[in-house]
Amino acid sequence: MAKNLDGKKFNEEIAARLKKQFENLPEKLKLAILQVGDLKESNNYIKHKVVFAEKIGILVEHKQYKEDVEEQEIISAIEEYNSDISIGGIVVQLPIPEGLNKYRIIESIDPRKDVDGITSTNINLLFNGKLGLVPATAKGVVSLLEKYGVNLVGVKAVVVGESALVGRPIALALLNKKATVTVCHTHTKNLAGETRLADVLVVAAGYPGLITASHVSRGQVVIDVGISVAGGQVLGDVDYENVKKVVGAITPVPGGVGPMTVASLFQNLLEAKNSQT
Ligand code: NAD
Fold it and tell me: Is 49 a catalytic residue?
């Protein structure tokens, strides 16, 4: 039976550590979250961030705009946060409505406060294998693997999913740890043929049950990033019950990568604060 890679438990350990570290700061630090619209998924992600923040003594300033907000209003708020020393990090909760220029909004965040690691400055650092603020999900995946002592140097890592926010940053973060990385997507010809070859398989497709027992092999480490909600249930991309009978280690959904993403965001907040002083 596969080992359970418990992101929830590790999240609690990180929270306890961060609480002490943030307590050592002279003033309570704030995280700014800007949201446009009222998407259920976004509300849910923000809720998790707020709960974690409360646990570790961080204040959250959450601004929620109507869908018809002017781009400049958001940019002006971000510019104010950039120069406000009580704000340690700025999150623009994605997605935002199509009518807004996502890139102009993101690029207005001071890269030193970009705790989601999505400005071109931080993406460039990730691309070049240099130190920067790494997107929270990618950071969380690597931290969880390292926590459980999974060697990444020279191993074959397969990432399913190539989105700019999730799949690509994960692939780069694994490459920066010297894994040999293959990225699969909807045009990949023989998905099972690729995934079966992995030592570490990371799935971020948003397609419940995509990875079945026939996509995996003995001893693999499987990280399920997928989160889909159907019939009130949270589902990953991996057929957990059948896959766990084959592989060496696996993350549950919920309780795997999700809590790691939240914890990593606040680790970035601490790094960001340290780089601002
Ligand atoms: P996305 O839709 O932008 O990208 C999905 C990617 O998966 C695409 O690159 C696509 O090519 C690939 N893909 C989809 N179906 C496929 C298939 N049948 N075969 C091969 N490749 C396929 O989604 P995203 O924003 O990258 O998010 C992916 C998943 O991760 C979603 O379920 C999302 O909710 C979840 N997510 C989880 C966390 C977390 O903390 N656990 C954080 C962010 C996103």
Answer: yes
